[in-house]
Specification:
223 residues; elongated; mainly alpha; 77% helix
Length: 223
């Protein structure tokens, strides 16, 4: 069809990546903030939050699937934006770390959701339950060791790609390196530092959106 090229160019516009990245940032910041406030960071806590904050936690868990879908869309369209400039080595690290981050995020959400459903079915004090202690320790390890580290790897690989391809301003790459180092080595001392990850993605998305409006050619009428 004569309009296939025009339709494909519209589907590949970086504005789609920008919107998805911004949506992920907003949803993830909201979900992470609610979970941080509602659930104690100590993995050995007794589970008192289940009696007072389970509704807020359940709301945050419902936001996570939508945040994950937006992040996956952001990664996919960002790769399409790179096109032939994409290096195989960094592409593997970039895509692999993003998928592992999503897998861990969804696993944590599923485990916390299982804790809430189990407590709703049996409101016995969680302190007496070894299963509760195991689930809390598991989520603590997944978030503070594996998910944060995968986010750092994603930031380093993406920042390196930005430096070589110039798909975003260089300062976003340098900011990504700094935040990634903080995630690797300072997350235990700075419990809220993880919010810098979605903020960084929001900044990249904003730069892509601005660049799209600056370079957008005049739209051609459909034939």
């Amino acid at each position: 069809m004569p309009n296939d090229g025009l339709i494909r160019s519209r589907l590949k516009t970086p504005r789609a990546a920008a919107i998805a990245g911004m949506l992920f940032s907003i949803l993830f910041v909201a979900a992470f903030s609610i979970l941080r406030v509602s659930v104690p960071s100590d993995p050995a806590e007794t589970g008192e939050w289940l009696k007072t904050g389970s509704a807020a936690v359940a709301f945050a868990l419902n936001l996570i699937p939508f945040a994950g879908i937006a992040f996956l869309w952001f990664v996919g369209v960002l790769r399409d934006r790179l096109g032939t400039l994409e290096d195989q080595f960094f592409a593997t690290v970039f895509l692999g770390s993003s998928l592992l981050f999503l897998a861990i995020l969804f696993t944590v959400a599923a485990v916390v959701g299982a804790i809430i459903l189990t407590f709703a079915a049996n409101s016995e004090s969680p302190m007496t339950s070894a299963a509760f202690q195991f689930a809390r320790t598991l989520t603590y390890g997944l978030v503070n060791v594996y998910m944060i580290k995968m986010a750092g790897v994603f930031m380093i690989s993406t920042s390196t790609v930005i430096l070589y391809t110039r798909i975003a301003p260089r300062w976003t790459a340098f900011a990504g390196f700094v935040v990634a180092l903080l995630l690797f080595f300072g997350s235990s001392q700075l419990p809220w530092i993880f919010l810098a990850f979605p903020v960084w993605i929001f900044l990249i998305s904003a730069c892509l959106l601005i660049d799209a409006f600056r370079q957008r050619p005049a739209e051609q009428p459909l034939q």
